[in-house]
Request: fold
Amino acid sequence: MRLILLGPPGAGKGTQALRLVDRHGIIQLSTGEMLRAAVKAETPVGLRAKDIMASGGLVSDDVVIGIIADRISQPDAAKGFILDGFPRTVPQAEALDALLKSHGLALDAVLELRVNESALLDRVEKRVAQMTARGEAVRLDDTPEVLSKRLASYRAQTEPLVHYYSERRKLLTIDGMMTIEEVTAEIQRLLDALRASDKKTAAKASRRRAPANSTEGRGTAAKSAGKPASGKAKTGAVKRAAKVPKKATRPSRGGAPKKSKAAGKAKSVTKRTAKAKSAKKPAKRAVKKPAKRPARLTKGRRVL
Ligand code: ADP
Reply:
C-alpha cells in the first residue's frame, strides 16, 4: 500500500503514520524527519536545509525529491510506504507521479487530515510541553512565530494538493478534529472500503476481459480501465469523491441558488394561486365590476 498523509503542521500526520506502519507493516517516509537527521549529521543537504527549516520555509523541491527518489528505491519500501510531509508542492506531486510511474507503481490514496487552524497552535504547544517533559530536544520550528509561517507555507503551497489529488480521485478526507482513536478508525474504515471497491473493480474488469480476445472485447476492457474512477463512484470511490464535491459544492449551497429556487417555487405557487383566484372570482366580478379585475391581478402579482 502506498499512501500520502496530507495536512497542516499539528494535524496529526505523524501520529497516524505510526499507527498505519504498525497495522500494515509498511514504512513511514517523513521528509521532515529525514531533513532533521541530515541537519543533525551536518550533511551537505542538512547544511543547506538548516536555516530554511528553522524559519518555517520550504526546502527546495530538488532536494526533497532527490531524498524521496533515493528512499523509494530501497528494498524496505517495496511493500509499501506512507509519505508524511511529502509532497508539499505541486511540482513535488508531479515529480512523485513520474517517480512512481517509472517504478511501475501507483498511489493508493491520499489521506487528508482536515483541522481547524485555531486548534493547531494549542496542539503544537502541547507537543512541545510533552517533549520537554520527556527530556527530548524540542524542534526549533515549534514556536508560535515559526508555526504561523509554516501554516502560511501550507496554505499557499501545500493546500493546492487537495485539489490536485481530488481531481485524480485519490483524496480521502478525514475530520482531524476527532480524537486520535476516532481518526485512526475512520482512516481504517476508508481504507477497507477502498480495498473492497478496488477488488470489485478488478473482478469486473477481468470478467469483461475474459469473454473473448476480440477487438470488441478489448475495446470494452479498455473502456472499463478508464471507467472505474467515475463508474465506481458508487462504492469506494464514493468516499474519495464524496469529500471533494462537498467542498466543491459548498459555494453553491450559499443563499443565491437556494433562494432563487425557493423564490421560484414561491413564485409559481403564488402564480398558481393568483391564477386560480382570477379564474374563479373574476368571473363573478366580471359580471359585477369588470373594471376591478386588473387591480386584483396586480395585487396578486405584487405578492410575488
Ligand atoms: P510539519 O510538522 O510542519 O508538517 P515536518 O516535520 O514535516 O513539519 O517538516 C519540517 C520542515 O522540514 C518544514 O517546515 C520544511 O522546512 C521542511 N520540509 C519537510 N518536508 C518538506 C518538503 N516536502 N518540501 C520542502 N520542505 C520540507
User: Anything to note?
Assistant: Residues 9, 31-32, 35, 52-53, 56-59, 64, 85-86, 88, 92, 141, 150 surround adenosine-5'-diphosphate (CB under 6 Å). The chain is about 65% helix and 10% strand. The mean pLDDT is 77. The first strand starts at residue 2 and ends at 6.
